Automatic annotation (TrEMBL):
Organism domain of life: Bacteria
Transmembrane segments: 27-49, 85-114, 126-145, 157-180, 201-225, 260-279
Membrane topology classification: Multi-pass membrane protein
Protein name listed in UniProt: Carbohydrate ABC transporter permease
UniProt main location, coarse: membrane
Gene3D superfamilies: MetI-like
Length: 293
């Protein structure tokens, strides 16, 4: 084979087709992802749009945007006068933020210990914590309820915070341990030589695993905000209702008032969507970093 034939084989029509096939595959993949995103977000967008429309327009033109003639805040007015959603939001925010702070703090300290120190039960402890990922916490609902009754924590937000903290720790420890093991040991040894304590070293490592902390926060946040099971069992009181429980009770009362129903669903959905958007970049960075490791 001559040099001209070699060059022709690398620059001819066959070679020129390869990038085209690659672009076609990428376009097909992106098209599939866009279609899936539209299918996933369309129900939420329809709920939000129709919550600002009158009842006749909801049924006659469900896919149309609100216009000056169809726009109404009747549903939100009903929600404001019939349910204390401000308190429900405050309860959900308190439970979610409190649980996330405890999850991040306890799981990061446990992950630091498992990744940094070698002791006899190191592997066994990691496996024991991993069981919490496979076994749903709802299987222990009766025992949890009895424990909260003995501790006099029923109808308090502390009951929900403690349960959600226990629920989120296993997965958080599993994710953070792999990231902390990827931190160069030379950095920690240099800090020890400089006289830094173990708590100081732990504080220095946290910024290095920030994507993992963001991923843990995003993964743990949505189940806590959307949970209905434990608020219904542990904190069903009017002063301790979360927004999901409050919205469920409201829907049962105003099941035929579609403006109010859509308004209540919008108020329950929008906050968690906004929080997820805020932490989505950290979630993607954490998942990508874990895959690369």
């Amino acid at each position: 084979m001559t040099a001209r034939e070699v060059l022709a084989g690398t620059t001819g029509p066959a070679a020129a087709e390869k990038p085209v096939v690659g672009r076609g595959t990428q376009l097909l993949a992106h098209g599939g992802l866009i279609l899936f995103s539209l299918l996933a977000t369309l129900p939420t967008l329809l709920i939000i749009m129709n919550s600002f429309k009158d009842r006749l327009s909801i049924f006659s033109h469900p896919f149309a945007l609100p216009t000056p003639s169809t726009f109404t805040l009747e549903g939100y007015q009903t929600v404001a006068t019939s349910a204390n959603f401000a308190l429900f939001f405050l309860n959900s925010l308190t439970v979610t933020v409190g649980s996330l702070l405890l999850i991040v703090l306890t799981s990061s300290m446990a992950a630091f210990a498992l990744s940094e120190y070698r002791f006899r039960l190191n592997t066994l402890t990691g496996l024991y914590l991993s069981i919490g990922i496979m076994v749903p916490i709802r299987l222990g609902t009766v025992g949890i309820l009895n424990l909260m009754v003995d501790l006099h924590l029923v109808n308090t937000l502390w009951a929900l915070i403690l349960v959600y903290t226990a629920q989120g720790i296993p997965l958080a420890v599993f994710v953070l341990t792999s990231f902390m093991r990827g931190v160069p040991r030379d950095l920690k040894e240099a800090a020890r030589i400089d006289g830094a304590s173990e708590y100081r070293i732990y504080g220095l490592i946290l910024p290095l695993v920030r994507p993992a902390l963001g991923a843990v926060t995003a993964i743990s946040m949505i189940p806590i905000w959307n949970d209905l099971w434990f608020p219904l069992i542990l904190a069903p009181g009017e002063k301790t209702k979360t927004v999901v429980l409050g919205a469920s009770a409201f829907l049962g009362q105003f099941v035929n008032d579609y403006n109010a129903v859509l308004a209540a669903l919008t108020l329950a959905i929008v906050p968690v969507v906004l929080l997820y958007v805020i932490f989505s970049r950290q979630l993607v960075s954490g998942i990508t970093g874990g895959a690369l490791k």
